[in-house]
């Protein structure tokens, strides 16, 4: 039996966990109504349990006190007994499938925002401000310390009464407990600061109070960091000492270990390592903690693959592996391993769409899986075969939308043909994956390629579909996912020309796709500020160009999420890319052998120039609509989608209406440029009822 | 670097922002020494943001907005040269005792196991500041190790006699006995490895009538006395015992030396070593079928990725090179190679002496899987790919042509060799 | 002349026949002893012949009618001929009767003759090609000879030439049919066959019974041979059984290994056993050989049937190709026990030489050291069910059902079946418990691989474990465990009521303890596991369960007692003898022929073998999975459960 | 020495002694053949024209006998069981037996599955008997006169050919051919001949504390820097070799030569 090590049950405290795989605590941003778990929340975890996950620890940063605001991230609020019946639903749903569920409880101290909800005064041991949340805070008083200790105990009681299997005390990510631990934040000289014992006191009192309240049977764990990576913070040796100190009490049932602190943007990116990181980059820290504690150790951070998980477990570095993003990408991960379908696992690529949304206070979604966290709406992870008529479905365009449309249609049992003009499927994903450190994006395409092959989809590469080729196939449904092209013509003075010889500017796609070689001195003008601009700058600098990236927005990469822009910045600065903001590209003209780019200051209108060899422009996508307008008049539905049905996740009414000819739909960027998730989501919700 | 020429008047003007010529002087100064900003013909300021600032006296980039010190600018900004920090050198002139270590020196270099064992020897030598010991390494035959000083070697006994080259346990034992007579090491430490240490260590122990501690995996300090923990009963038990004189230690028995340099003072055996009775003749290594060795164990791997177009030729090359075959995840997903050949974090971790990556760009998972390889060769079209950055040797060009040339070269050498033998 | 010669011929042939019979019996008796009740055995022959044997023969109507006419005609003619001609009592009805029977026999013989023109490949040729002519000669000769006796023809009619022809015809017929019967001619089957029916080593098979469990070896008796390597090491009645073979080749036609091109042909194997007892060579054998083999074979040096090195009559691969599916036994009109012979010889190879091929040695080592064939830690048996909280029987005073999980606990595929079964049992509120880590492999695999010692060790320890607990019955989803627990543990003192899960589910459905949602559309076929069907006669329950789910079963051509093996039995996948094609692929072709989208199975081995067939192929689902998928939550469960009467079969 | 030569190559064939120990299954601890010792027996059985004797020195008991039957089942008629106390140093007894029985070749496993398992015993015997010692034997290629040509195991599946003077004691590597199946019949019929022998107590044994082995995970990358940023970078960065040689714009031929040279330097090419 392969992957045996993953399937050996383990006891955590009184609970037997059926396997070694954990969905660790993360903020789901799904709780509603004052921090109550909702149907959406329950279904999201039920799906993981159904898929075989051993232990789910839900509710990242679920708060125990009312002065730790839960509203910003729609996290769970354990400061009131109102939560108890909600937990009962959650516990039943997970237990029904043999899973175990615990919740992370915390007081976030200074790590929050104060400017909303109850306009709380944030607390911290010494009133030191936290950079990531730009939050100021007061110095905590003795009375407040004891109140919060009591709040922890009450929160644990509520989890227990709600039928959950345990709580995880968060002493990581610079929450209140580890704010007391860290000399970086705790400058106190009273009994709560200074010496090791004093810094440990708050966490110890919390642990004691919680244990006292819930008894020995209920699981109580702690999540800690393995090294804060701050010069004035807690290092690995100190963390080992702390872990051993708490372990010696016998009151802790497990430790979860995370590498890196996260109170700066740069360290925060470590906590949820994106695709530019090596696999399990911080395993050594968790393994170090394991050498000093007597209870099981959980480690998550870039563990996504069953082979990788097995290797880690077999080696005995830790006892359980967190595969959290892996479960967001595919909650049926474990079931697929057990079914011998490891090649069918939709593997997390580390795009961090999930966590980057979370930091913007948006619900957690997966870049490549439209069903995740939409289980409550009835979006399926497993597409069932249709019981209705089998149809001929033609999909035009092999980008994310087209691939998902072809996959879902084929899973429904239809006869699917996919046209792709290029020599490989993937669309813009392929272009995106060419940038340094972004190659994992291609993993999305690889999964689709394997699935489409398995489902027997007829993929026609190097075949730009036209009216005749499509109609030759006598389709019942035509889906256009033809994407678009770089939008280079918006400003005439940029000097774009279809003829590359004459054009003064180059698109970022042409650079990344390798059609145009990077020149020596380059100006990248990026008005979109998503991944594409910083990617192309990074790519060119990597090839040896001197690059300046200019934007008229507030900073280059402004729209790149909180766990990803730091890794771009690390590499851009390292390669001496100049990042300039607030300047718009006004005009490009030739002067002798050089190009001169005229930039206009967004706020003063002042002009300045750059003398360069090449000007690269990233101005987003212009939809390709020609084919659509050719086919539209001939289609039964005139290309229209019933939005009410679409948004309600219901079948398009036209599917059941009789009539001659084909139905026409278009999805993704050929409608309006959005993103990968949007294209995939549209394809899924539209095609699941074909 | 030439000394900067000074013009005190211009410096004065540059410092004096109220001087009427200030702007012009500043512009001229900049223009002569790579300007960062100047006036373009269209009357718009032209900037070269790459040129802003210079390297200050501390070797750190400095931007002098005051202009006060700019004339002293020495160098334009650029990447700061990285230098390896020099570790302190430890010399032990009169050691209180000797810890003798006999490293395996596979391939003429210290193995990682050797380094671990030297690390353990270091612990034994340095434990008591009042009684400082020295680590003596015994090296047989020729070697190409250049970093003994970083591995914690105080004394090096290099026995270069060519008869000690290769597998020669009986002769080597004779030399170690001589060493025992002359230096009476306080302890003998061997790597307990199939490469030689396991055998030589046991031979010496029984010769010296010492009961060795074998498969030692950690030292323990008990009441000012050394003890050790060993594996016993084929990995099934742990045995704690007082530390004997002869120690055969497992990999990772101790951290290798990393913070100090050591003297590597050469020593020699004074007396003559009696001729050993030789009962074993080494007839040399035997070619084995690479397919019979597990991928994770393979010594030599030829690995193919997306850049391979003709897989038959790849397989042919692997056969000719007598290398085990590996593949990137992409090649496996695309169905060109079986799943069990996948190298990387999501496949097999390999530890080859030489790993040739053909047409593999080097996804981060793949790079992790080859972390333990000794030498990595990249054959790739893309000079900027991560595999080329990782490689010890990278050849940029058409993978198939290069492979074919390599196979032809090997063919040619083999024929020559065969002719040579026949003659 | 005739009235002298004919009685003389009769007398001579009878005497020669008696001598031959004596010698033949003595030859059989050179085998190992096997106690039988002689009188009872002899007395049982007619009924067994006419009922049990005919029951099998009747599966082929043409040959059944032919056989009735020919054999019935001959027996009657012979008896009458002795009376009519031997004692010259031709007058009256007897002569006419003799005429009638010889005429019937003649018709039968002609039918036999027709069968022999372009005979199917399974039939042996050689002497058997002669037989119809001999039959015709006898019936014709005797008919014509009798004509004068009843006065239809004048005495001494025709010339002496005619008389001589008649004598030759009768002599020919008598020599083939009377003493040919005991001297090894093709009619040997009648003589040996009749006695074999009487002295069969599995008496239980007659009268509709079933006897499929292997006979134990006495391992404590150090002098007893371990299995069989020489012909004399078979029991005498096994030898008798081999001699009963009529080389009809029905076994050959149904043998999955033969069809797959593996070197096994059950008919040839039995003939090799006969050759071993008699001539020591297969030179005269005129049927199909073992696939991939040809030429003559002699008994090995030292008189061994199977040679480890060099040549003998039987190659070890022949023995290891057998899946022990019992199709040959089921099909044999002479009720010969091929599988017993195969296992007897395997026993010798394994127990004496340790010559179990392929992965056999690993599997047996694992069974010895870990009590499961995969070598998994015996303490990890319940790992798969950590989340199911299964009740352990050791925590219970008694339970209705002891759920025997089998080694499928280590297999992720079979874990799904087990989960489904547990879901169903819970839905039906069955009071069940498991042995947990105390369970061991049932010993089936070891026994089929010939390792009787390991089998007995496992069996005895399992029986000792079971003796510690109180339960009403055992339920298992593994037909191999089912068979061993039900039919083979008895020899070691383990007697239990055992159900295969299909049978038990059928009962639960019958007792209205399960309710289902309407069946999904789609066609289903059902594959009978050998160890459930042929070994235990359970053909109906699985079909009844499928019917209860609202599924229509599209039967395969080969189903029920004629089901084709999946290739997974008898340790065949472990020893893995190569052939021209794989048995499961052939079975999948059978399945595809039905057009079914789902094939329902009831055995972990079958599931594994069939799922090993490359896709695209129909889905493979265990009956338990189909039942679990169709379950609906019962309304008002608690209330009903409290008043639930226990199933009468269990209580 | 002279006498030995006659033993080793006389007309009666080579006399091979196999020293076998009692094994324990790695998962269940059940007694049985020790894997390497069984491979040693297998090697001995494959030496042509040889006379094989099996010796076991240890505490007789049911478990011991059960384990020894595993060897008998390989088709061995008898095993000599030299009775020793549980805490005995068996080397003296074995030395004496070997001195008496004068085998040409002694085979045994590399390491025992029970007890200290130091693998020292064959070395002690070779030293005190003055015989050759071979470590890591995988197969015996030929025996001519008092010379044996054998293959020795090296790491990573590699092999080395050695010519050894007999008499010799060889430790058999776990990569030697696997032992044949042990059959029930011969295992039951084979004899275990008990030989009484004085035991000399292994005094050192009392000083050892033996426990079940702990899990010892392989070392992960070491990031020891005192600088938080260095630790951070070392963990988060992908592995790069740094100072590798890059050959661009060279012919395929030149590229191949550079690779060829590296392969030769690293000694991975077998030519």
From TrEMBL, chain C:
The chain crosses the membrane at residues 6-22, 68-87, 93-113, 134-153, 159-179. The keyword RNA-binding does not apply. It comes from the Bacteria. Residues 236-266, 310-341 form the 4Fe-4S ferredoxin-type domain. Pfam families: CCG (PF02754), DUF3483 (PF11982), Fer4_9 (PF13187). The keyword Cell inner membrane does not apply. Keywords: 4Fe-4S, Iron, Iron-sulfur, Membrane, Metal-binding, Oxidoreductase, Transmembrane, Transmembrane helix. One of its GO terms (cellular component) is plasma membrane. One of its GO terms (molecular function) is metal ion binding. PROSITE patterns: 4FE4S_FER_1, 4FE4S_FER_2. Residues 631-643 have a biased composition (Basic and acidic residues). This is (Fe-S)-binding protein.
TrEMBL record, chain D:
GO terms for molecular function: electron transfer activity. It holds the Pfam family ETF. SUPFAM superfamilies: Adenine nucleotide alpha hydrolases-like (SSF52402). Keywords: Electron transport, Transport. The keyword Secreted does not apply. InterPro entries: ETF_a/b_N, ETF_b, Rossmann-like_a/b/a_fold. It comes from the Bacteria. Residues 22-203 form the Electron transfer flavoprotein alpha/beta-subunit N-terminal domain. Belongs to the ETF beta-subunit/FixA family. This is Electron transfer flavoprotein subunit beta. It comes from Larsenimonas rhizosphaerae.
